[in-house]
């Protein structure tokens, strides 16, 4: 199939990969999650991804993942979509998490390729199909080989597109050519998972983005998409460039996005709390640099 239109947006256009707030003692902070989710929705997010990479999914329990979905659903109602991260290295466990997320009130599932075991592409494809068969929820294939060690190859994605519940891709492959190949061959909704590629992927037909930076500036990339849709491509490009200091500080400074997002949220007195080990909190100098980048990006946005 060759498609010449923008891919559909089954979960909205502007999604935030939300941090999972913890209390200072390290417990799950459900009230903080409710408040943060409400702020993100008010700032323009029309979807939230819970328990993804930024949500520290490897260090939250199955019960915590389900409780988080339930709490955020209570806070935002039906105003936005909720996509629950359920990916693990174990197909059976992933299916269990998918069913729990569906019961808790999620609208969709975010599923990574199984990590560590590095299965071949036929096994990767079978993994996604088994998860999609098990639940009634639509599924987002999360292609992030830098963390899983396994790429979901374009040909595999093209085959998976024939499954009625495999509807989208969160792309962190850093392979723009491969992404365009899938966009041209399928109706899968593509979401930029790397903040620096939001406009680039949207310009070639992606549905939107799943952003870590949106935890602190939810309106920023929404403005990029709105400008592009209004035909003001110059303003869209300028806004994307104005976001660069914050993107670099949060995503390219050698620390995971969960660490930098929580450091900046905490400095802004917003719900976040500590990260869980093995991650460690950002130091004072890093946090100060994040604040400077945040202020520069916010000021730049106002000047456009």
UniProtKB/TrEMBL annotation:
Pathway: Amino-acid biosynthesis; L-lysine biosynthesis via DAP pathway; (S)-tetrahydrodipicolinate from L-aspartate: step 3/4. One of its GO terms (molecular function) is 4-hydroxy-tetrahydrodipicolinate synthase activity. It catalyses: L-aspartate 4-semialdehyde + pyruvate = (2S,4S)-4-hydroxy-2,3,4,5-tetrahydrodipicolinate + H2O + H(+). The record marks 53, 116 as: Part of a proton relay during catalysis. SMART domains: DHDPS. The active site is at residues 142, 170. One of its GO terms (cellular component) is cytosol. CDD domains: DHDPS. Its EC number is 4.3.3.7. Its main location: cytoplasm. Gene3D superfamilies: Aldolase class I. SUPFAM superfamilies: Aldolase. Keywords: Amino-acid biosynthesis, Cytoplasm, Diaminopimelate biosynthesis, Lyase, Lysine biosynthesis, Schiff base. InterPro entries: Aldolase_TIM, DapA, DapA-like, Schiff_base-form_aldolases_AS, Schiff_base-form_aldolases_CS. It is an enzyme of class 4 (lyase). Pyruvate binds at residues 54, 210. The keyword Phosphoprotein does not apply. It is found in: Cytoplasm. The keyword Cell inner membrane does not apply. One of its GO terms (biological process) is diaminopimelate biosynthetic process. Catalyzes the condensation of (S)-aspartate-beta-semialdehyde [(S)-ASA] and pyruvate to 4-hydroxy-tetrahydrodipicolinate (HTPA). NCBIfam families: dapA. Belongs to the DapA family. Homotetramer; dimer of dimers. This is 4-hydroxy-tetrahydrodipicolinate synthase. It comes from Streptomyces mutabilis.
């Amino acid at each position: 199939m060759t498609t010449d239109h923008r891919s559909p947006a089954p979960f909205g256009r502007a999604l935030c990969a939300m941090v999972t707030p913890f209390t200072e003692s390290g417990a799950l902070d459900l009230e903080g999650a409710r408040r943060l989710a409400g702020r993100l929705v008010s700032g323009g997010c029309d979807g939230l991804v819970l328990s993804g990479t930024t949500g520290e999914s490897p260090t939250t329990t199955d019960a915590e993942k389900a409780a988080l979905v339930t709490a955020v659903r209570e806070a935002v109602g039906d105003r936005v979509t909720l996509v629950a991260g359920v990916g693990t290295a174990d197909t059976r466990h992933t299916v269990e998490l998918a069913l729990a997320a569906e019961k808790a009130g999620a609208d969709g599932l975010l599923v990574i390729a199984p990590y560590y075991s590095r299965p071949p592409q036929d096994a990767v494809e079978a993994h996604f199909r088994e998860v999609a068969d098990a639940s009634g929820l639509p599924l987002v294939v999360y292609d992030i080989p830098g963390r899983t060690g396994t790429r979901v190859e374009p040909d595999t994605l093209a085959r998976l597109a024939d499954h009625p519940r495999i509807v989208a891709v969160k792309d962190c492959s850093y392979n723009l050519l491969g992404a365009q190949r899938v966009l041209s061959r399928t109706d899968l909704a593509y979401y930029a998972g790397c903040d620096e590629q939001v406009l680039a992927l949207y310009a070639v037909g992606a549905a939107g983005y799943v952003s870590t930076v949106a935890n602190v500036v939810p309106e920023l990339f929404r403005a990029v998409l709105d400008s592009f849709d209004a035909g003001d491509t110059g303003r869209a490009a300028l806004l994307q460039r104005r976001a660069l200091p914050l993107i670099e500080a949060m995503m390219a400074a050698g620390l995971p996005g969960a660490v930098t997002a929580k450091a900046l949220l905490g400095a802004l007195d917003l719900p976040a709390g500590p990260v869980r080990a093995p991650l460690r909190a950002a130091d004072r100098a890093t946090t100060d640099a994040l604040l400077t980048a945040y202020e520069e990006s916010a000021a730049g946005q106002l000047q456009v």
